[in-house]
Amino acid sequence: MKRRIIKVFIFLITILCVVCLYKVYINYDMIKEIIKQPPIVFSIRFKDGDKGTFKYNINTEKAEKISDYVFQDLSYSNDYEKIIGLIWEDKFQGLAELDMKQYTFKTIIDLEELNKCAKDIGLDEIKYDMPGVAGIHMPQFYKDGCTFFWKNSGDVICYFNKQNDVWKMKVLYKSEHENYSYHIKEENNRDLLFVESRYEIYNQKIEKINIDKNNLETFGEEELLITPRKNFSDSTGNMDVSNDTTMISYYQEPNIYIYDLETRNSKHINNQYLLWQHIVYIKLSSDAKYIFYAVGDIPFFWSDGYRLNFFIVDVKTGNKIRLDKWKKGDMFYGVDW
User: Fold this and answer.
1) Gyration radius from the chain CA atoms
2) What CA dihedral angle connects 321, 271, 313 and 276, to 10 degrees?
3) Average pLDDT for residues 209-221, to the nearest whole number?
4) End-to-end alpha-carbon separation of the chain, Å?
5) What is the pTM for the complete model shown?
6) Which of 78, 114, 169, 174 is 20 to 30 A distant from 62 in Cα terms?
7) What angle do CA 189, 195, 201 make, to 5 degrees?
């Protein structure tokens, strides 16, 4: 009897070792392919006082500082050669870009000039109160200018560019409700705006997120997805759109999905169960083969902000790797991939 128990124990240990080795191999094989992608970039204020914008090496799990400025709500250009972000510090408030080859900093427009443009089209001005707490969100390169949410409600998306050396702004999209994220995809014959929104039916206390696709030329709305949620705490939203506009990645607790825009079907990719946590960012890789997302541990009394955990999932196989868990008190202001 004792010998049989030992044999069973050895068998179970062997199986466990095989599973662990297989997991190590899968992770190695995934990372070998993932490192061919552009780097993950993020802006942060560390608990120890250091701050700036960093690129993350998936292979070594190390972060390298590429700017002393905190590029809030940063996003890549279409060619991944620059990032744009909001600088909201005492020495400068406005939009700026960072070259991803030389890491050179260049201002685009300051808050004073933005407010002049906003006043010309009847929008309320934005005031600077303190570092980090901004009234402009999700700036993105678009054509020969930039787009962004104006003020905190997210119901107005503005586009601005230079015309005869003068900055001009116009409202690109306006709704009667709050929006949490948007993505503009440029195509040969049309530009598509994808908007993630939350509608509330107050008398029934029901909340839902609608992901809408809009043609910017006609402003005709087409409802794509309705993903019910009990709460939605982060302004970056829980969806992303592939560069070729064929798929949307999104999270609907406890599952991560890919929505095929051609077949109008959702494909389950993997699970992410949450316990006193939120999905904070979700990003598709440049070739849409992988999904990056961050899980935030909700802090006690919201005193320190989210403590983030980084994950990447293979869209084809559903295999998932965990990259890093950051320290409690590290404040993230933007992530892109």
Assistant:
1) 22
2) -60
3) 72
4) 57
5) 0.85
6) 78
7) 145
